[in-house]
Amino acid sequence: MSTTLSRVQRVETVTRGATFVLRRLITAVITLLGVTLIVFFLTRGVGDPVYILQGSTPMTPEQLDLLRQQYGLDRPLWEQYLDYLGGLVQGDLGTSLYTKKPVTAELAIYFPATLSLSVAALILGVIITVPLGVASAIKPGSFWNRLSIGFTRFGVAMPSFWFGLLLVYVFVYVLKIAPAPTGQLPIGMAAPPRVTGLIPIDALLAGEWNVFGAAMGQLALPVLALALTSFPALLALTESVTARVLRSDYMRTARATGLPPSMAYGRYAARNIASPIVTQIAMTFGFLLGGTVLVEFVFSWPGIGQYAVLSMQRLDFAPVIGIALLTSTIYLVLYFISDLVSLALDPRIRHDS
Amino acid sequence: MTAEQTLPAKAGAERGILRVIRHPLLVNGSTITFAILILLAILAPVITPYDPVKVDLSQISKPPSLEHWFGTDVRGMDIFTRVLYGARIDLTLSIGGIMIALIIGLVLGSAAAYFGKIVDDVISRFAEMLQSIPMFLFAFLIVAVLGSGGPTLLIVIALCYWPAFFKITRSIAAPLMRTDYVAVAQTAGRSGMGIVLGHIAPNTVIPVLSQATVNIGFAIQVIAGLSFLGLGVPVPEPEWGAMISVGAPRIAYGEWWMAVFPGLALLVTVIALDGMSRRLAKAEGY
Question: How far apart are CA B17 and CA B9, in angstroms?
Fold first, then answer.
């Protein structure tokens, strides 16, 4: 009898988990479709596409009409949107007016630079803020607690691009211990053979230690500028979640009934703290991928952010639209994955949702 | 708080505002700093003898001195003067943009809470869609459609920040919809609009104000960031981000003052606004 009951419960738990995943998936897909819809109508707002197509040589109205027919611009807007969506699904983000190359191919060139910058900043930021948040929550009023408050205020108020400029002034001009902000490698140094597109990793794979060292040197300042300004939310969350868990009734019970600290903290506390932190880390990473625009610009970093700015200045909008779609898609995918991780870490979601 | 929720909303909210304004916590470093900033911005023409956009070829790239407290830039313009006039531009645009965002958020948040169901779902999804596009790229798209300049920045700030106000209004208003005084108002035959304006909106004022204060700081960072990239307020105008962009290429040559002073003004302003927001939240107990 008891086994049947528990089996029923187990089936119910699994079904609830599946419903949760399915609901989140549907929400993510709807949100993504909405984003493409917003972006599609914004692109129509940029101007009649035929004027962009005609380029610098003016055309007669008849020629423009022909062009409209050729590109299907005379059809109803919703049909055009479906076509646009069909193109997106096949990875067609349009063509850059400036380089005349497909935007997708251009993004493949610029994206790895942003990825290595964001991943490095994420690693440094998480290493600083998660332990600091936990230490700060353990003892209010302690040195760590005050450091954490200071870090949060600094991160909220400090503009990343200005902080980057200050770092350049102090470390490049005054102390002369950092390389000039010339992008991913010093001027004149050849990039390692392209395998992953991430310069430090490619240098390691090729066994070029001097290139690896130079690449890490180039990364140092922009990563610092991002890591010290992008993580106040993660720090605040780590602190509040840890404080709540440590002062909860079940932790007091666990300790009072003699559960060893390794079990109480290592297993029960850590699990409850981990789930919201994972979600926040995923969101911060999504934010970094789309939010490195200013820092990339300051450090001449050849990533998608700088590419977006250059395209804006050339009035070449297809790449900007492509980058906006790419980064919001990544953000939504990360958000969805973090939901799955929370589901695995925190059984309460399976039971309650 | 629970006792207050059963009181008529208007009386409760008015007392709340008075209590917060009179609160001793409100007179502190942040509010005094911000008040001084506003004063400096208003009194700029009295404080400094220079014109913020006048080219002076005899005073190019001078370091800070008694004559030019913050030095001069590559066009010989006095940076101290430009920082003061810059406060006018940055504060006007950020406060204006956030005010528009606040009104949109309050209206849509109250509507979502009042009507619930489909209205709530549609607005909530739309807010999520906007928030899942990275802010600067979304701003780029709007600049691409409308062109750069001050009015576009107002719209950028309004469109980027209304979801924040929508969420907080909705989260406060939705539980209120289930309270007795709304039920009483409904049975008494008050119109939907009347209930929203008279009973729901006033209760959201203080927390929304706290949110608005810190968001003005973030908005200044966005305005300065876009102008720094050349996509906001155009360069000769005394805007802090645009001033930093003039100073940025000179910093590698040791001419630090052009980028440092406008950035410092930006930093101090955001710290003051962040501090004010924290105090407001604390005073109200959120």
Answer: 12
Contact B74, B250 (CB under 8 A): yes
Contact assignment for B252 to A42 by CB distance below 8 Å: no
pLDDT of residue A65: 77
Q: Which residue has the higher pLDDT, B50 or B266?
A: B266
The whole-angstrom distance between A272's CA and the closest CA on chain B is 24
Query: For residue A253, which amino acid is it?
Result: T
User: Which of B211, B229, B269 should one mutate to test binding to chain A, selecting the residue with the greatest count of A CBs within 10 A?
Assistant: B229
User: What proportion of chain A, given as a percentage, has pLDDT over 70?
Assistant: 88
CATH number for position B198: 1.10.3720.10
Domain of residue B113 covers 79-284
Those residues whose C-beta lies under 8 Å from the C-beta of residue A171, and which sit 6 or more positions away, are A177, A178, A221
For residues A140 and A1, what is the distance between their CA atoms, to the nearest angstrom?
A: 50
In a domain, B19, yes or no: no
- B78 in helix, strand or coil? strand
- Tell me the DSSP string of A35-76: HHHHHHHHHHHH--HHHHHHTTS---HHHHHHHHHHTTTTS-
Q: Helices (DSSP H) in A74-198: which residue ranges? A: 77-89, 103-138, 143-157, 160-167
CA distance B240 to B48: 17
Confidence band, pLDDT 50/70/90 cuts, at residue B208: confident
| Dihedral of the alpha carbons of A199, A204, A208, A213, in degrees to the nearest 10 | 70
pLDDT at A1 over 70: no
CB B170 within 8 A of CB B113: yes
Mean pLDDT of chain B: 84
Does B39 reside within a domain?
Answer: no
CB contact under 8 A, A313 and B230: yes
The Cα–Cα gap between A310 and A117 comes to: 19
Q: Which residues of B fall within a CB distance of 8 Å from A94?
A: none
Mean pLDDT computed over B204-212: 84
Nearest CA to A279 out of A340, A206, A194, A189 is that of A340
Is pTM beyond 0.90? Reply is: no
**Is residue B36, in this structure, part of any structural domain at all?**
no
